[in-house]
Amino acid sequence: MSRISDVIVVGGGVIGCASAWFLAREGLSVTLLERGQLAERASGANAGMLLPFGETNLGGPFLAWALRSLALFPELCAELRQRSGIDPELEASGALHVAFDAEAALHLRAKAERFAEHGLRWLDGDDLRSQESSLARELVGGVWSPLEAHVRPPLLTRALAAAAADLGAHIERGVTVTAIRSVGRRVVGVETTDGSFDADHVVASAGAWTPALLSRPLPIEPLRGQLAILDLDEPMLRTIVVGAPAYLVPKRDGSLVIGATEERVGFDNRVTSEGMRGLLAGAEALAPRLGQAAFRRGWAGLRPATPDGLPLLGPSPDLDGLVIAAGHTRNGVLLGPITGQLVRDLILGKDLSDEARAFSLDRFA
Q: Which residue range forms the structural domain that includes residue 239?
């Protein structure tokens, strides 16, 4: 186990592992410290949707970043497969954003017009069902979004970590960071349940647990997201379906992920009967035949949510050498690659771009 590195990354979710990968590619010595197992928390309880147009209420900077990050996935996943032997299962499935009533349809039509240059187009109910015959007759229409996609987040996270390790990064599981060490205003490493680790830079990317690492309050709170997974006897959907009651994500192994609740219940990550009932009812409303599918399991994760839904990215105002990369709410997988690149650039001494300043800690000062 290496005790001295150029960079220590705290957190073994998709953000931490993406940071470790992009830093290791630059030849920096990296130690990643995860208190449990990789992708054990929010990155594991995740459908892996890559939906830049699902969050258009978050504004222009988010969409620009999300589209740039989405564009990185094909090359990134190919490189990770080759270097780690793990396939993140990127599926360029496209997505259908669907409506049950006129008000929702009006909103979706406006979205299709606004983003027509990206291939979004409106489909009426019959056209919707001609594309996905299992969808409910009650749906009045929807928007087809051809660029959107999905991955398997646990596989993506493990592939990033394994590829970083192949380049010399040290991936340490079962090690809890208890404090960030500093001398004056300068970071010098971390204290852990397994002793001290030294580094000139520390990346705080521990999801909902990131505020506990810092000396100042950080506006990140846990947001519980429960999901369910069904086993299908035969393929029922080819694309992601996003509607008011739920979203549906068909996976390569024939399973279907249903998500997701959004619950402010602190650090309670239990799966509840109420949560499962709501998800299964929502799935049946979108595609009635799902009522006959076998239930495999439910699970839950705690998303690191900020007040405005945007991540907190940038250098710490308190400690030189400390970089914050957390608070991605429900877009950690989508923004993982571009966040990893931003962390790399900050460690290498580059300033935040004007675009990235929309996510800086200053907005909550």
A: 95-147+221-305
